[in-house]
Amino acid sequence: MRILFALPGFHAQDRGAEVALLAVARELARGGDDVTVMGGGPERPDEPYRYVHVPIVDRKRFEKAPQFPPFRSDTAWEDATFGTTLLTKYRPKDYDVAITCNFPFSHLALRRPTFGKSPLQIYVTQNGDWPARSGKSEYRLFRCDGLVCTNPDYEAENKDRWPTALIPNGIVLERYKAVEPDRAGLGLPEGVPIVLMVSAFIDTKRVADGIRAVAKLPDAYLVVAGDGPLRAEVDALAAQLLPGRFKRLTLTAPDMPRLYASADAFLHMSLLESFGNVFVEAMASGLPIVGHDTPRLRWIVGDRDTLCDTENLDAVADALRRALATGRGPQDPRSAEFGWPSIAARYRSFIVGLLERRKAA
Question: Which residues span the membrane (predicted)?
Answer without folding.
Answer: none
